[in-house]
Design a protein that fits this description.
The complex is a heterodimer of chains A (about 525) and B (about 550).
Chain A: H1 5-18, E1 37-39, E2 43-54, H2 66-79, E3 96-104, E4 119-123, E5 130-136, H3 139-151, E6 153-156, E7 161-167, E8 169-173, E9 179-185, H4 193-205, E10 210-214, H5 244-255, E11 260-264, H6 296-312, E12 317-319, H7 328-332, H8 334-342, H9 347-364, E13 368-372, H10 373-379, E14 388-390, H11 397-403, E15 407-410, H12 413-416, H13 425-430, H14 440-445, E16 446-453, H15 463-467, H16 470-479, H17 493-505
Parallel strand pairs in A: 2-3, 3-5, 9-10, 9-16, 10-11, 12-13, 13-14, 14-15, 15-16
Antiparallel strand pairs in A: 1-8, 2-7, 4-5, 4-8, 6-7
Helix pairs in contact in A: 2-3, 4-5, 6-9
Chain B: H1 8-16, E1 29-30, E2 33-34, E3 49-51, E4 55-69, H2 75-88, E5 101-108, E6 123-128, E7 138-143, H3 146-159, E8 160-163, E9 168-174, E10 176-180, E11 186-192, H4 200-212, E12 217-221, H5 251-262, E13 267-271, H6 303-319, E14 324-326, H7 335-339, H8 341-349, H9 354-371, E15 375-379, H10 380-385, E16 395-397, H11 404-410, E17 414-417, H12 420-423, H13 432-436, H14 447-452, E18 453-460, H15 470-474, H16 477-486, H17 489-493, H18 498-514
Parallel strand pairs in B: 4-5, 5-7, 11-12, 11-18, 12-13, 14-15, 15-16, 16-17, 17-18
Antiparallel strand pairs in B: 1-2, 3-10, 4-9, 6-7, 6-10, 8-9
The chains are: A alpha/beta (about 525), B alpha/beta (about 550).
């Protein structure tokens, strides 16, 4: 905040005058997720018909157009709900908001884990004309600021114009956790490209910042791997596939919205589909999973895939899975049983051997590794210290992982698995990643959390309504400062309902709050009540 | 369609004449990879006449459009072309190579962009490798109207397949010669924005998806007893009946919807359902209720009621240019009329039973619509109750049961088929094949009576459908309706086509999801339910 000295002092004064804390005034706010600090007034500004972006004073040149595009999307979403009267010449009591002045302090547009996502947004009540000010360390913080800005804009049904309500605004905001993820699963069902891009758009509305792409699993292998071109023979059909260009487009599209893509290769236990193209990866024709541990070819293929990955997926982490490994195909297949014996391995130690060898390959490609929690539960002390343990089985794992000095992502299935459709949004909201972790050093090792949209019963027809609004509840848990979070979810019902209706207005098929996931509305009624 | 022997493409067609393919229903699987039965024609709805060959043509991602004929390039066709380019080339394509198809030629014979019932939607589509001998090379669409050209563009887009092996868009089985026209002029989908408000963006997504199935009427059931979302400038308190002040459509929003639909060759038929489904009107004007404790039907005894109707219709006439206007008239429970003293008195004074009053109300509303140069459409109860009194122009909208259109056309009325047992999309337990094999002309023998059956409509009533689930409830079953209404009866009716139709519909449902439309699995027992387990889209 050093660069912001003068502004910060001014800001501190304003805060003292208005004495606003988000918790106290939560009832009148419509922003989701709730910012770190908010003050607001009761006046209204008119958004100019030629509202523009100004960037004087930025060190960031926006050569790639990320900010410009973000601004243009802002205009689209604030105008999407109703036709705005473009010829309306406004003569009323409210001042006109002419521009948003965005100052980005860092010239870099690199999007990496831990990138500074903070922003300060002020919208004055006066001025002729008035200017909104958005300051951020990085362009990605600025994008979050634009999302917040879009949520204080409202259509006026009398003037047919966009107004900014509750000015003056002073918002200081930054995320509580730097990893706020959503998993999608394109192996159980292929998700067409436009569907994935639309999910990414909706993630940005909720300030989620990691798309965990569970690309491949037992059922299908949809991604093109140039090093081993027969792998996508494991796709469901000749058209249920992603080319390298498709994957690059997903990464590019996400990045321009401040979202990283975490690619997953779930080995060795969820990889049967690999063998359609290369049957020697199967222990045998009748016993096709886990990948054949005794065959060096298996690790060559993993190396080839990760080498290809590293050209597409620039996120610091790669997910190597490692969950639910049933080693009976290893112990039942004579060739592998013999190999185990020669190497003095049993099923459990072989599992460890596989995971660690795969970790080394990933490290050699410059990746840090994420593994599902079974790897930690079985041989936590052997894992590379760069490993991030991805919790899923139950609560309490983060506590143990961080006590062991490893980093952790929280996704306990009882609260944050979106395919559990009977889990309510209240459960999602209340799931606290730092439960029972009091030591600040340990707390810092919990890098965030993720909601998981497993695809067994999910395809292009129902993914949005199963994700939303429950993922939004988790998004606030991960973004919003702990003290600003509602202790009782019922305190935020109205605000979440409002966000759900906002998603609908933007064309996202978010389900009602009543019921669990993807429940149809039971009766006629207002979106804001359901 | 009248004879248009000047049609170059049509003349060419006579030179081709390949036999139509027989549907085979074998799904071969290698390993576990789903392979399509290549003997089927994956166009939905099936064109009325088509032939194809064995060539594979590659399509240039920089495909250009050239207009010849009377129309120098209508904006409607140009914008449609740009939309379809985005759909066809969404995976990116190698460029710089040689492509068989680099240009689309569009020939439209009339530049009249008026969109009304019965507008000529026929088109011819030729896809062939260009060579020095061909008169018209590559891809050509010829149509009488720009709306026919839109239908041709849709068909062309369905022929274009991205090949993941060579990473190029291809057209298989060329040369294609397709000559197509709709079986029925009215092919509708009802949306209900009273039970749940549907945001503009969602309505637009639905209109866009309708164009993929060549549906051409959006029946907008705007208002009902639950809410009144539309702005009516003449009676500005009416939209106080909206659920909230945010769940409203301005006049400009309504224009936008009509315009968006027209760009896709789709008419918007507005409905004001009187007198029985109108309780929400009274939120702004309580005088329209018989009494504060008995709020429906609208008060028949007051001229004011009809003034309001006249005001609404006058305002709507400016927005909705379609020649049909739906006046509802269904499910009228007249108890509030006979139990409210001042209305009971009025009935007595006018020597009317409640049934007479129902008739009086409907006919008076019809007169208002007709005075605005609208053709009234009414739900079938009006016809069932007082057929001889209905204005002869009336279009009867069937819903309660089968056989009604048969009776209506026998009496000289035009009819729209929406038998709830099959074509009510909110009936989640009607499987795709029941929807598909429903025949609107069932029992109607004479040609002149058949002509009075304008078409049909799938109805998406909104009690349990909002922005989150409306599209997966509409699709894929509305596509089954769309093929029934567009395609030739002979090609789509015999039950031995069931397996072929199922595979084609499964394919089309995947096409919808590939275009971002949330269309549900075809064979689930209940509509809009999730897929039962992991698997290929093409088998679910």
């Amino acid at each position: 905040m050093g660069k912001l000295g003068a502004q910060s002092i001014l800001f501190a004064v304003i805060v003292q005058i208005l004495v606003i804390s988000a918790a106290a005034n939560i009832k009148n706010l419509r922003i989701w997720p709730m910012p770190l600090s908010v003050s607001y007034g009761h006046r209204t500004l008119q958004l100019s018909n030629d509202f523009v972006l100004k960037t004087e004073g930025s060190k960031y040149t926006d050569a790639s157009g990320i900010l410009k595009e973000g601004f243009s999307r802002l205009l689209d979403v604030v105008k999407v709900s109703h036709v705005v009267d473009a010829n309306f010449s406004y003569v009323g009591p409210s001042p006109v908001l002419k521009a948003i002045q965005v100052v980005v302090l860092s010239p870099s547009d690199e999007l990496q884990y831990g990138v500074d996502e903070s922003y300060n947004l002020t919208i004055p009540a006066h001025g002729n004309p008035a200017y909104a000010h958005l300051t951020a360390k990085t362009v990605y913080g600025a994008l979050h600021g634009l999302q917040t800005f879009s949520q204080v804009c409202h259509f006026n049904f009398t003037t047919r114009t966009i107004e900014v309500h509750q000015v003056p605004w002073t918002i200081v905001d930054r995320p509580r956790f730097s990893y706020r993820g959503l998993l999608i699963d394109t192996s159980r069902h292929y998700l067409p490209l436009p569907v994935i891009l639309k999910v990414i758009d909706s993630m940005a509305y909720a300030k989620l910042n990691v798309l965990h792409w569970h690309i491949v699993d037992t059922q299908s292998f949809p991604l093109e791997i140039p090093s081993y071109p027969k792998l996508w023979n494991g796709a469901y059909s000749s058209s249920e596939r992603y080319t390298v260009a498709d994957a690059a487009e997903i990464v590019r599209y996400a990045r321009r919205r401040g979202i990283n893509v975490l690619a997953e290769l779930d080995i060795p236990g969820h990889a049967q589909s690999w063998g359609n193209g290369y049957p020697s990866l199967w222990p045998s024709k009748d016993c096709q999973q886990p990948l054949d541990i005794s065959n060096d070819f298996t690790f060559k293929v993993i190396d080839g895939i990760l080498s290809d990955f590293s050209k597409i997926f620039k996120y610091r982490f790669v997910h190597l899975g490692g969950d639910e490994v049933d080693t009976s195909c290893w112990t039942l297949t004579p060739r592998i049983r013999k190999w185990l014996k020669q190497n003095k391995l049993n099923g459990t130690t072989a599992y460890e051997y596989f995971v660690l060898r795969a970790q080394k390959i990933a490290l050699s490609h410059g990746y840090e590794i994420i593994n599902w929690e079974e790897t930690f539960n079985n041989f936590g002390n052997k894992l590379s210290p760069k490993t991030i343990v991805h919790n899923w089985l139950g609560g309490g794992v983060a506590q143990q992982v961080t006590a062991a000095g490893l980093r952790c992502i929280v996704s306990n299935q009882d609260k944050w698995y979106l395919d559990h459709i009977d889990t309510t949004w209240q459960d999602f909201y209340s799931n606290e990643p730092l439960t029972n972790i009091t030591n600040p050093k340990q707390q810092r090792l919990v890098i965030g959390g993720e909601v998981c949209m497993w695809g067994e019963h999910i395809d292009g027809s129902n993914i949005e309504t199963t994700i939303w609004p429950r993922a939004a509840a988790a998004a606030e848990r991960l973004w919003t400062a702990y003290d600003n979070l509602a202790k009782n979810p019922s305190q935020v019902t109205r605000r979440l309902a409002h966000f759900r209706c906002l998603l609908n207005q933007r064309g996202v098929a978010s389900g009602p709050l009543t019921g669990g996931g993807r429940a149809a509305p039971e009766d006629p009624g207002s979106c804001y009540q359901q | 369609m009248s004879s248009n022997s000047q049609f170059l493409l049509k003349t060419l067609f006579l030179l081709f004449i390949f036999p139509l393919v027989n549907a085979r229903s074998i799904k071969s699987t290698l390993h576990k990879t789903t392979e399509l039965d290549e003997s089927l024609t994956y166009l939905w709805p099936l064109p009325s006449q088509f032939t194809f060959g064995n060539d594979t043509l590659t399509v240039d991602p920089n495909l250009s459009i050239v207009f010849t004929g009377n129309v120098g390039g209508s904006v409607i066709v140009k914008e449609a072309f740009e939309r379809y380019k985005k759909i066809i080339f969404k995976h990116g394509s190698k460029s710089g190579d040689f492509f068989d198809v680099t240009q689309l030629t569009v020939i439209v014979h009339s530049d009249n962009d008026e969109l009304q019932l019965g507008v000529d939607e026929s088109y011819s589509l030729l896809v062939t490798k260009s060579n020095e001998h061909s008169i018209i090379g590559e891809v050509s669409i010829e149509a009488n109207s720009i709306y026919g050209a839109l239908r041709g563009l849709e068909t062309m887009s369905q022929l274009c397949i991205f090949d993941y092996g060579v990473k190029t868009v291809q057209i298989h089985k060329a040369p294609w010669f397709i000559q197509d026209k709709p079986r029925f002029a009215y092919r509708g989908l009802l949306l209900d924005t009273s039970r749940h408000y549907l945001p503009i963006e969602i309505i637009k997504q639905i209109i866009e998806s309708m164009s993929y199935t060549k549906l051409n009427v959006l029946h907008w059931h705007i208002i009902d007893e639950e809410s009144f979302p539309l702005e009516v400038p003449s009676y500005p308190n009416l939209w106080k009946g909206s659920y909230t002040k945010w769940e409203r459509y301005t006049v400009e929003d309504a224009y936008e919807i009509v315009d968006f639909a027209k760009m896709r060759g789709i008419n918007v038929m507005a409905e004001v359902d009187v007198p029985g489904h109108a309780e929400s009107w009274g939120a702004g004007y309580p005088d329209l209720w018989p009494s504060p404790s008995c709020k429906e039907p609208l008060d028949v005894s007051k001229n004011y009621t009809f003034d309001v109707i006249a005001g609404i219709l006058a305002d709507m006439r400016k927005i909705f240019p379609f020649e049909f206007f739906h006046l509802g008239g269904d499910e009228v429970n007249t108890t509030c009329w006979t139990t409210t003293p001042h209305i009971k008195q009025w009935l007595q004074d006018h020597n009317m039973t409640s049934k007479d009053a129902y008739e009086y109300f409907v006919l008076r509303a019809q007169e208002i619509a007709i005075s605005h140069n609208w053709t009234p459409v009414n739900w079938e109860e009006t016809f069932n109750t007082f057929p001889s009194k209905l204005n002869p122009q009336t279009v009867v909208h069937n819903w309660l049961r089968g056989g009604v259109c048969q009776e209506a056309v026998a009496k000289g009325f035009r009819c729209i088929y929406s038998n709830q047992g099959f074509w009510y999309l909110d009936h989640l337990d009607v499987p795709w094949d029941k929807v598909y094999y429903t025949e609107p002309l069932e029992g109607i023998k004479s040609i002149s009576e058949q002509k009075l059956l304008l078409g049909g409509e799938a109805c998406m009533w909104g009690e349990t459908a909002d922005a989150s689930d409306v599209q997966q409830t509409i699709w894929p079953r509305a596509a089954a309706v769309a093929e029934r209404l567009w395609s030739d009866k002979e090609a789509t009716s015999s039950t031995n086509t069931t397996s072929a139709a199922l595979q084609r519909l499964e394919y089309f449902r995947c096409l919808l999801t590939r275009r971002g439309v949330p269309a549900a699995p075809v064979t689930n027992f209940y509509a809009r339910r999730p897929p039962l387990g992991p698997g290929s889209c093409y088998e679910q």
